[in-house]
Design brief:
Layout (H helix, E strand, L loop, with lengths): L1 E5 H11 L14 E6 L4 E7 L3 E8 L2 E4 L1 E6 H10 L5 E7 L2 E6 L2 E8 L14 E6 H11 L14 E8 L3 E8 L3 E8 L10 E4 H11 L6 E6 L3 E6 L5 E6 L18 E5 L1 H11 L9 E7 L2 E8 L3 E8 L1 E2 L4 E6 H8 L7 E5 L6 E4 L6 E5 L5
Antiparallel strand pairs: 1-5, 1-7, 2-3, 2-6, 3-4, 4-17, 6-9, 7-8, 8-9, 10-15, 11-12, 11-14, 12-13, 13-26, 15-16, 16-17, 18-22, 18-24, 19-20, 19-23, 20-21, 24-25, 25-26
Length: about 375
């Protein structure tokens, strides 16, 4: 194989694929990226960790010799990063080595044969629909903070995508760690009817979100089966991310969404976030709870720590129900408030032991549920 490519193009492509590669691998070839060049001038670069695979197509300046080889992902990325801007990079293989040249720099890297490189077999992906990159990015941003990191409850280690009938057919994304729940709803895209309920793993979600960063105006085609999902970004010359899905059953989260919470608190989310952040300064691992005292038109936030003393702050708010006190994990509350991009947030409360519903307003596509803490 012999190909010449712009450094900027190579670097951009490697930055997309190399983050899939785990730095510590028991299988040496999984540390490598697969590079394929054909005489039409197309280059294909691919990386995998056996559960997740990213393939990107790009144009070379020229291809003198077609071929394919695998080489260390992080090494090639680091070299491309340090080469001078605007340079042309030549990639040439011979005798189990890849020679990388740019200007006066020359590197010889060890390679492994292309035939040993594992490829995820997608099989049939019968459900297929399209979302805008902006919609998909928002769906991820509004839910992924609630994904569980507990490996024992592996079926919560991702975002649950499913179609349901509310007032009309909708596509929902949900994530929960048992303490909080985030759900995002949008009208069902054409082609999604009859799709299986799937759980997209946390790592696939993170890699997909990075790729969407550069595709904000474009469309993303999503193809899926009960065991695999494929995201195609940027059309024919773009990036394709394929991931295995989590093999488990997501709990029926709709049962924890409260419907009868009759106490309504309205407050500015930015002021609320800043207040919680300030009083939580003295909180410790043991006392992460912030107590909210609700009275007509005001909220008193307080934290008491046996080691660090106590803190309190009063905030103006709209509240007209009977007074009550309720405690929340300060970090969980801040995570949710950070998602609300408006002047008011609604908290629907019932009592100090019941889950609280948090949303921008009743028409908001995002909805959050937070379990209280004893204080």
């Amino acid at each position: 194989m012999k190909a010449t490519i712009e450094r900027a193009n190579l670097l951009r492509c490697l930055s997309h694929v190399q983050s899939v590669v785990e730095r510590r691998n028991t299988i040496p070839i999984l540390s490598n990226v697969l590079i394929e060049a054909d005489m039409s001038g197309d280059l294909k670069i691919m990386a995998t960790d056996l559960d997740l695979q990213v393939v990107e197509n790009l144009r070379a300046n020229r291809v003198d010799e077609a071929g394919s080889i695998t080489v260390s992902a992080h090494l090639l990325f680091d070299i491309a990063r340090k080469l001078p801007e605007g340079s042309e990079v030549s990639l040439e293989t011979a005798d189990n080595r890849m020679v990388v040249k740019a200007g006066r720099s020359r590197f010889q890297l060890p390679t492994l044969p292309r035939d040993d490189f594992p490829v995820i077999v997608e099989g049939e992906l019968p459900s297929s629909f399209t979302l805008s990159a902006t919609q998909l990015a928002e769906m991820i941003d509004r839910t992924r903070f609630a994904i569980s990191t507990e490996e024992t409850r592996y079926y919560l280690n991702g975002i649950f995508l499913h179609v349901s009938q509310d007032d009309g057919p909708v596509l929902k994304a949900a994530a929960t760690d048992g303490h909080r729940l985030a759900r995002y709803t949008l009208p069902m895209p054409a082609g999604a009817e009859g799709m299986p309920d799937v759980i997209v793993p946390r790592k696939a979600v993170a890699e997909l979100r990075k790729l969407l960063e550069e595709a904000q105006d474009g469309q993303v085609r999503i193809d899926l089966s009960p065991s695999k999902i494929r995201f195609s970004i940027g059309g024919a010359g773009g990036v394709v991310l394929t991931s295995k899905l989590i093999d488990g059953t997501f709990p029926d989260y709709s049962r924890v969404i409260p419907t009868g919470n009759d106490k309504l608190l309205r407050i500015d989310p930015k002021t609320f976030f800043a207040g919680v952040d300030r009083v939580a300064t003295i909180a410790t691992e043991k006392t992460r709870a912030v107590k909210m005292g609700l009275e007509p038109d005001k909220v008193t936030l307080s934290v008491t720590s046996p080691d660090n003393g106590n803190a309190a702050e009063e905030l103006a708010a709209e509240y007209s129900s009977e007074g009550m006190e309720i405690g929340f994990n300060a970090n969980y509350l801040k995570d949710i408030l950070a998602q609300i991009d408006s002047d008011t947030v609604e908290l629907h409360l019932a009592d100090p032991g019941a889950p609280t519903l948090i949303r921008k307003d009743e028409n908001s596509p995002s909805l959050y549920v937070l379990m209280p803490m004893r204080v």
